[in-house]
Specification:
Helix content is 41%, strand content 17%. By secondary structure, it is of the alpha/beta class. The structure holds NADP nicotinamide-adenine-dinucleotide phosphate (NAP).
Length: 259
């Protein structure tokens, strides 16, 4: 129970990596604000947390909407009294398409959720972290940091690279407040994120190189599980990583090294 008496906020907590992280942090003793924009999914995560004896605070919000983010953080503070850990996880793959086919509104939507969403998550929560210090973990990706070979994923890769820049910039800015800021960069993880992906013109954008089959060395090609990312998030959220800040941690089974 290394997070006993801590309060955490997890965005995109209704599925995938967010759901696994919310459960892992709750198991370690944290009260968890489960934030997302689909109430039915959040209710399931909250029920799972309560089933293991934890405490969840359900926060329905669009991460890119300032008013709903402010009201969610107020609810979490009113209910739980403090904030120690922020996991900025909500994100979409968006549209993957050739650059001359990608529509401005498609570009904007990926930037809106992944970047404005990350910015707003930190903008509304950092004032509370400044009270006692804390830990921020941003869920980035190998895309845009270690690999650039996902066909048409220019907008997505740009947001994921920018998230690591944000982490490094803020590690310095917030260090004086005893707030650590790190990123996890997952490789392929088995989640429902493909539901949030639209691919067009793949033949035009695919990288014309054949990679060996089974390109995740540590699993013989099998994608990772959300829990593989959640356990690194627990490490970064806890005092076990007390001297780690401004660091992207690759959680990709070595996948990104092959590219
Ligand atoms: P996921 O299961 O689709 O989870 C994303 C969560 O974010 C969903 O619960 C989604 O809710 C929520 N969300 C999306 N837009 C939102 C918004 N505007 N406001 C509030 N919540 C919103 O996918 P995942 O794979 O766990 O993705 C989590 C993070 O991991 C993302 O940042 C992604 O880029 C990153 N990542 C994933 C992989 C992978 O292979 N899976 C690899 C590298 C990085 P709805 O489902 O209701 O829309």
């Amino acid at each position: 129970m290394e997070l006993r008496s801590k309060v955490a906020l997890v965005t995109g907590a209704g599925s995938g990596i967010g759901r696994a992280s919310a459960l892992t942090l709750a198991e370690a003793g944290a009260v968890v604000g489960v934030l997302g924009h689909t109430r039915s999914e959040l209710e399931k995560t909250a029920a799972e947390i309560e089933a293991i004896g934890g405490t969840a605070v359900l926060l329905e919000a669009d991460v890119a909407d300032e008013a709903s983010m402010r009201s969610s953080i107020s609810t979490l503070i009113e209910t739980s009294g403090r904030l120690d850990i922020v996991i900025a996880n909500a994100g979409i793959n968006g549209v993957w398409a050739p650059i001359d086919d990608l529509k401005p509104e498609e570009w904007d939507q990926t930037i809106r959720v992944n970047l404005r969403g990350t910015y707003l998550t930190l903008n509304v929560s950092v004032p509370y972290l400044k009270r006692h210090g804390g830990s921020v973990v941003v869920v980035s990706s190998i895309n845009g940091n270690r690999t650039f070979s996902t066909p048409g994923a220019t907008a997505y890769a740009a947001t994921k690279a920018a998230q690591v820049a944000i982490v490094q910039q803020l590690a310095l800015e917030l260090g004086r407040h005893r707030i650590r800021v790190n990123a996890v960069c997952p490789g392929a993880i088995e989640t429902d994120i493909n539901d949030n992906t639209k691919v067009r013109g793949k033949d035009e954008t695919a990288v014309p190189v054949e990679y060996p089959a089974g390109d995740i060395p540590i699993t013989g090609g099998k994608s990772g599980e959300s829990e593989d990312v959640a356990s690194v998030i627990l490490f970064l959220a806890s005092d076990q990583s007390r001297h780690v800040t401004g660091t992207p941690v690759y959680v990709d089974g070595g996948q990104g090294l092959l590219r």
